Amino acid sequence: MVNGSGTGRSGANSVQSVDRAISVLEILAKHGEAGVTEVATELGVHKSTAFRLLGVLEHRGLVEQAGDRGKYRLGVGIVRLAGATASRLDLSQETRPVCEQLAALLGETVNVAIADHDAAVNVAQVRGSAAVTSHNWVGRRTPLHATSSGKILLAFLPPEQLRVALSRPLARFTDNTVTSTKSLREQLVRIRASGCAFSIEELEIGLNAAAAPVRSYDGTVVGAISVSGPSYRLTEQRLREITAQVVEAGIEASRRMGFN
């Protein structure tokens, strides 16, 4: 007969091992690389225990040894698992709570857009309390170079894709539209550095906006979250004032998409 108390201890030990294995992964995620001694110290266990945990994780491809220096790092198995999860994450669904929170905080309309060839397409929208129109941006294609979301999507394109995107003439929509490739490239450098883009009456007179990137689990920019409103209310000064909130919303949306 199996001893009930023994089974309980075995189960508890198994749960503890799982918890420790997860902690190992979190330690490597935090430090990038770590040796057995470092892992053991952070876990508060003997080196032999840390070595066994790392061995099991290495066997499953979740960690790997970084060269011959006795260090470990996350393995490609993590990417496989993350990819399986990320493939099920719907951008508009996952960012909805963030859009609602930002719209409530600022009172303005919040959109999420993705790139579609030479345009940005809005896939989600939440109206703020101060919005006075019922204009629906969902599904609308907007030019990359004349919108805050579009500039975010342009700024984080791979170099070759950006070259192709900027090889076409830049259409003018208002007197404020940037139609110089050189000027636009200079803007994109600043956007990559600050993590925020602005559109000051560049698509429509009387419409201003600010946007930040939304990243996937691997750091790739998969969308942009933006706040837009009438220029008499969302002035250039006001855009600067809300930059931190917009960027923070992009960070939270990215976290929900699996980006750490």
TrEMBL record:
Keywords: DNA-binding, Glycerol metabolism, Transcription, Transcription regulation. This is Glycerol operon regulatory protein. It comes from Allokutzneria albata. Residues 77-259 form the IclR-ED domain. Transmembrane segments: none annotated. May be an activator protein for the gylABX operon. GO terms for molecular function: DNA binding; DNA-binding transcription factor activity. Residues 15-76 form the HTH iclR-type domain. One of its GO terms (biological process) is glycerol metabolic process. It comes from the Bacteria. InterPro entries: GAF-like_dom_sf (IPR029016), HTH_MetabolicPath_Reg (IPR050707), Tscrpt_reg_IclR_C (IPR014757), Tscrpt_reg_IclR_N (IPR005471), WH-like_DNA-bd_sf (IPR036388), WH_DNA-bd_sf (IPR036390). Gene3D superfamilies: 3.30.450.40, Winged helix-like DNA-binding domain superfamily/Winged helix DNA-binding domain (1.10.10.10).
